[in-house]
Amino acid sequence: MKLISVIGCGYLGAVHAACMAELGHTVIGLDTDTEKIAELAAGRAPFYEPGLNELLERNVAAGRLKFTSKYRDIADADVHFIAVGTPQLATGEGADLRFVDAASDALAAVLPRHRKVAPLIAGKSTVPVGTASRLAKLFGKRGAVLAWNPEFLREGFAVKDTLSPDRIVYGLPEKKSEAKLAEKLLDEVYARLLDEDIPKITADYATAELVKTSANAFLATKISFINAMAELCDATGADVTTLAKAIGHDDRIGKKFLRAGVGFGGGCLPKDIRAFIARAEELGAGRSLEFLRNVDAVNSRQRMRAVELLQESLDRPLEGATIAVLGAAFKPDSDDIRDSPALDIAAKVAELGATVRVTDPQAVDNVRRRQPERLVVDTVDEAIEGADAVMVLTEWKEYRKLNPKRVGKQVANKLVIDGRNCLEQGEWRDAGWQYVGMGRR
Ligand SMILES: NC(=O)C1=CN([C@@H]2O[C@H](COP(=O)(O)OP(=O)(O)OC[C@H]3O[C@@H](n4cnc5c(N)ncnc54)[C@H](O)[C@@H]3O)[C@@H](O)[C@H]2O)C=CC1
Ligand SMILES: O=C(O)[C@H]1O[C@H](OP(=O)(O)OP(=O)(O)OC[C@H]2O[C@@H](n3ccc(=O)[nH]c3=O)[C@H](O)[C@@H]2O)[C@H](O)[C@@H](O)[C@@H]1O
Questions:
Q1: Which residues line ligand 2 (CB under 6 A)?
Q2: Model-level pTM?
Q3: Which of 34, 173, 296, 318 has the fewest beta carbons under 10 Å from its own?
Q4: From CA 360, how far away is CA 106, in angstroms rounded?
Q5: Ligand 2 atom closest to Cα of 395?
Q6: Which domains does the chain have, with CATH numbers?
Q7: Are 314 and 322 in contact, with CB atoms under 8 Å apart?
Q8: Distance 125 CA to ligand 1 centre (A)
Q9: What are 167-218's pLDDT values in tens digits?
Q10: Are 395 and 378 spatial neighbours (Cβ–Cβ below 8 Å)?
């Protein structure tokens, strides 16, 4: 059992803190957002993530999990995880490392100078390659050792992915004695997972940082590939869902991450590929990632295509029409609306003069807070009543299971744009709907 701190308790850090406590460690989560800390300290998740509330409740009650906003409260931890945000720079390219730097400085200032065993700092945030070796110098001056331990969890499956990851990656320092200490401490932190034969990969800092960004770049590429195929399917009358199924049977291609639709969003894939391109350019290797610009462009185009499909299919101008948008989160089982394709599309349709009613099972509060200009309603019924078209833009289970006959009675015009190819098109057509998928003409 180790004393662990987790700095930054957002979508990643709060889950990591709760899961480390669940593994039996004593954990202190730290965040500068005092409202978030108050919620977490009361054993409640400040955002929607399946399974997180139970973990928080149990471990806070057991006294294994505490939260604070004061850096001095975490000074004595054996291992400090850094999980603060690395958003896109306001200029649009490159990662903003402001929070990583502020957290590192604040932590370095409270680290005890003469500790029997050097404390370990383990970076979890997604950072441009080269960041770890820069921060190692800062922490080295305080007698601490740095490792980079990138995270691969998915929102919506964050607890499961943390307690049962596909692999654990350690980016270790060059100096042998430091690498040995870092590996030993991380092995103690993850002992229960390693006992279950979760693969562990040790590497240098740069490789560990690149493993993370290249994994996200690969996933983004897969999605844009299938979306490019969907465009071709639309141009030829072919069906992209059958195509994805057929190519996915080849193990070398695989079935996952081939769902065509309005594309990827969220707080990670879009900003991570842009930061990756920017970093490669800084390193004089921009040519190697030129293709990622196309991945990004194909992805942005999907959002516009959804709007065009709506315009082409609607037998009236968008100006003055009422459009129901089902889904606001960037993916189901999350309330995260960062760079959400659904909200981007809703904004474009509203710009074209339609009244757009947006709903979501979990994200409406976030939309009201962050996009007060959006017209948000709490239920599907309120969204679709008298609508000229329904757009399904996040594939929540409750939307996939909608009864087309029932909702058909509530709308003014039976047109559905299935931006996630998640509806049974036959059922909708049989119920008299004009069904428009993406790559499923
Ligand atoms: N959300 C996800 O599914 C995953 C995120 N990541 C990476 O993890 C990092 C964090 O991402 P999220 O949790 O999604 O972001 P987030 O925005 O939800 O959380 C970041 C947290 O850091 C806090 N913070 C900012 N400055 C701080 C400081 N100086 N000291 C203490 N706390 C501070 C913020 O208040 C916020 O609560 C990013 O680098 C992201 O790319 C990696 C894998 C998965
Ligand atoms: O670095 C991160 O933060 C994380 O980013 C993604 O996780 P996440 O953003 O939570 O969600 P995904 O399941 O990857 O979905 C991302 C977006 O792609 C879209 N998507 C996904 C799969 C697919 O086939 N098609 C598709 O359009 C989703 O709707 C969503 O908008 C990665 O999957 C994680 O491994 C990684 O840790």
A1: 126, 151-155, 216, 219, 223, 257-259, 261, 263-266, 268-269, 330-331
A2: 0.97
A3: 34
A4: 38
A5: 29
A6: 3-198 (3.40.50.720), 218-436 (3.40.50.720)
A7: no
A8: 7
A9: 999 999 999 999 999 999 999 999 999 999 999 999 999 999 999 999 999 9
A10: no
